[in-house]
């Protein structure tokens, strides 16, 4: 007695239900040998079907079991099933708590359900120990299907932060679905605050050249926090994870306020010759906390940090018109150093400088910094000198100022430092001439060297003024403290120029 099984669609029970778009489905027919019934000559045949359900194929499908005798095509018995319903229980996340950016006094609680079918699902929120009950957003629980036809949804409620800060407030949510025998419950208690995560800081210890990376987490609660260090793949794109790095350490968490903690994660790595040569890749510090919907990540690039070679003193040369050009050349180093010039008498004022990068004769990268200045003692005298220089000669270039200390006709580029005071002594016609010429020269010759005017306070005697000091500050990641270079005017120059 042959038998067969047919799957038909609900739209037309005459047509077999076949996978669409070339999809492959798994079916297996289980058959037990005919069994003779006790006390009679009749036999029993048991047949069963096992398959992996797919929503796109089996949703609403109808199963038919047909029986016919051997050698005959006529179906003698047929049984039809009810429409097939796919039940998939939801996967429910823990409650995620987060602060609302526009309203720091309110905390948002979120729970997510995924991979469920059909799409009808219910979230019920409860609160105990607080004066207010959370209210779920109506729009947040609308299920959405994924590419496989399974649904996902989330529900949110909001509570004042003051309620959670009490520590005894308990909030829980129950998730109800037809595929569940019992509702799934998730709960949370107490105050929560997301951590502030710093950028990764690196330092190198001598003499073993071990590299230490550090990342600080502050102002978080509860104190349970997790840090994972990951190595990035090498190459141009450093956004792909390669492997987890073992050996990280955690200092803390340590309590800083009533319900706030901080901690520091460190990772020590001994640099190898191969790592020193590699410029690509990097390291990620991944921070996970119950207040975060997604982990916070900080990236560190795998680059060498090398201090530059700094000369022992500043080079200086003076032009015939009393303009001093100060320069300093740094060799090598990575990344680029930060340079700040300042000058004055008892107190120093910042100066405008010009920096250029070149490759030296020895193949090393050179950073050249040039700063020009003129000593200023009388506002009226300086205004006259300014106008005379702007009417005569061309602007001096940075390179010429260093190589030719006697060059004439140094151009003033910007007089904003003393602009308001100078206007008191200049009539409208003179001021217009200066402004027009300065604007024209600034547009035609952007490479002209800026001349800083440094006011010097007079001493106790009328023929005595303060000694000029010119200072440069050099900061670099490889230097624990800034390096300073200072030039001080000799006493004889102070007396002769007074």
Automatic annotation (TrEMBL):
Keyword Plastid: no
Swiss-Prot/TrEMBL keywords: Immunoglobulin domain, Receptor
Pfam families: C1-set (PF07654)
Residue ranges constituting the Ig-like domain according to the UniProt record: 195-297
Parts forming coiled coils: none
Domain of life: Eukaryota
Full protein name: Tyrosine-protein phosphatase non-receptor type substrate 1
Organism encoding this protein: Channa argus
